[in-house]
Amino acid sequence: MSFIDRMIDNVRQSIRQVRMNADFPRYEKEQLKAHAAAAERQFSTARIEEDIRTIKEKASQAANGKFGKLLAALHQEGAILQHEIDRIQDTLDIFERDYRGTLDQLYIEKDELFQKKNSLLEENTRLFEEMQLLKQERSEKQESLDDAFHRLEYAKESIDDWYAKSERSTFFFGNAGRELPSHSFFGQSFGDLDGYKDDRGEAVADIGNFKDLIREIKDQQNENWERRQEIKSALDQVFMQINAVKEQIKATKADRSRMFEMKKEGFKPSALKKELSGKLACRADRIERINTLNNQCAAFVRESERQLGIKEREAQVVAMKAQKAVFLAEFDTLAKRDQRRAEHRKMWMG
Q1: Domains in the chain, start-ordered, CATH in brackets?
Q2: Where are the beta strands (DSSP E) in 134-203?
Q3: Is the distance from CB of 166 to CB of 176 less than 8 angstroms?
Q4: Quick one: average pLDDT of 32-40?
Q5: Low-confidence winner among 10-24, 30-44, 261-275 (lowest mean pLDDT)
Q6: Integer-rounded Cα radius of gyration of the chain
Q7: What is the average per-residue pLDDT within 97-108?
Q8: Model pLDDT, residue 158
Q9: pLDDT recorded at residue 172
Q10: What percent of the chain is helix, strand and coil (3-state, nearest 5)?
Q11: Which of 255, 348, 286, 310 is nearest to 17 (CA)?
């Protein structure tokens, strides 16, 4: 082989080495995916876990057949007892309530709410009347502002006319070339000009004052409007509270009437308390029996699962998962990596 051939061969080998190194990460990714798939196939616990689910279902069904009806009956008895306890307790509450104290407090609360309502209504009426006055005052100030603008325009026109006349030719009834006096009853004078300027200054000052007054009125109107909105919301809340208190008074009086009727019918608090004590004892007994049966049921389930071999299967799952972890970890060992690199090189070398 000639020198040039060797050079060409070396270049080809270098290019192939570069391409081979660039391709190795892709190959490594494919091998990792294949390795993970092999782990899933070789160490699959799906069948064993399905057996475990079946065992648990069988044990649960057997326990339900043994304890289910009795537990259901006890729960139903407990619900009936709770309903009776609530009924007796409600009846006792009717006998033991302080109706006079409760009603006195409710009447005080109602009176306070009515006072609050009246105070809010009075303030709302006062604000409404004030709003009417502010509206009228704003209208008057707006008229005065408009008048001030008219006076300003008139003063400006008068000043313009004075200057125009002072510069116009005498042929056109002007005073061009004449010396004007400071004051004159019949002719043009500087006094007239000063008067027009004073009128202009007074109009400008009035415009500023009336604008300030209108702005203050608008601010007060906005403030009053916002306060009236607050009063409206407060009144809505007060009316709701008044209605709620009225309903409480009505319900309290109805309970008091019911108490008098029950006394006539022969109900006695002492007998009700005795009955309640008995029902509570029965409920406590049912709760204890339910807890005992639940414990027995749980123990029965555990024993049934043991007899059906759940412990062995759970141990198999743990062992296979451990083996799978070891198998997966082997992929990252140096020996396996060198082996894959050698196989990848052989594939490229063909």
Answers
A1: 99-284 (1.10.287)
A2: none
A3: yes
A4: 91
A5: 10-24
A6: 52
A7: 94
A8: 86
A9: 41
A10: 90, 0, 10
A11: 348
Residue pair 9/1 in contact (Cβ under 8 Å)? The answer is yes
pLDDT in tens, 178-190: 555 555 555 556 6
Structural contact between residues 300 and 66, judged by C-beta atoms closer than 8 angstroms? yes
Average pLDDT over residues 98-111: 95
Cα separation, 150 vs 145, whole angstroms = 9
State the maximum Cα–Cα separation within the chain, in Å, rounded to a whole number: 138
Return the number of other C-beta atoms located less than 10 Å from residue 301's C-beta: 19
- Give the closest residue to 221 by CA, choosing from 120, 119, 140, 130: 130
Mean pLDDT of all residues in the chain? 88
Residues near 340 by beta carbon (within 8 Å), at least 6 away in sequence: 27, 28, 31
In Å, what is the CA distance from 11 to each residue of 16, 348, 350?
A: 9, 16, 18
How does 226-241 read in b/e, with b if 16+ C-beta sit within 10 Å? Answer: eeeeebeebeeebeeb
Residue 278 confidence (pLDDT) above 50: yes
Cα separation, 301 vs 64, in Å, equals 9
